Amino acid sequence: MKTSTNKILITGATGFLGQHLEDELRDSGYKNIEGISSNICDLRIQEDVNNYIFTSNPNIVIHCAATVGGIGANRNNPGQFCYENLIMGANLIEACRKYCEDIKKFVLIGTVCSYGKYTPIPFKEDSLFDGYPEETNAYYGIAKSALMVLLQSYRKQYDFPGITLLPVNMYGTGDSLNMATNHVIPAMIIKLLTAKRNNVPEVTLWGTGNPTREFLYVNDCAKAICLAMERYDDEKPVNIGTGKEIKMRDLAELIAQKIEYEGKITWDYVNPDGQPRRCLDVSRAKEFGFEATTSLNEGLDKTIEWIRNEIKI
User: Residue 63 belongs to a domain with what CATH number?
Assistant: First the structure.
């Protein structure tokens, strides 16, 4: 697949994952890479997508573009998150089916949020439809799982080569620093760094601190996508993660230790926790050669250093 004639299109190319993915592809020897963002093509408008795909005519499409956010953003924008993620993916898949002359692979970046709220640990891909997703991000998760089903149906009817990857919670350099929409790790780091700078004796974090999460460094996710693009061709979804979970309160204490914040961390029980536990079975990804190599300790060190430089704390 790694030839100069294959043109790779990345949607959401200026986003958190998209930037790292483009770097990974170039480092892996791919030359003909085209990235698009919303200011180039509005994926919510079918005609715009059709025109873009017809002109671009890529061989490989990696769909990273998404409307995303943490628990608060999902809770406040359920309709927007459901509609935009569903319509962007459906428009793109249909345009590629109709207008790509030689489509070799369509890679859908799904989400761990598609799993049922009480899925047994570790999450196995065959359990994806066993239960309704956790309420605060169900609409986003269902939109993504619907796109996976669309790809499966297109494979059956049109022999369309779509695959679905299910990354766990990502973090790392280049993530959003907007406290209204960002994810848990940058939000925690910013809160604790700010408290340390201002000598605030106590920081209150969202929820009970009891849920667990699995975190994947964004560069590892980019490597997984590249490997799956090259080596995986099946309708069954693939978990992308580390297979290791950590309690949120332990994560907060670890970050506080790393930045040397000595104040008290308390938890706001009024706000929701989200899914009780998240931890993936990653054996299917190992079959095509992916295994995460960045430890949480190493990844946090890199992320903290980057955030410090970005916001001058």
Answer: 3.40.50.720
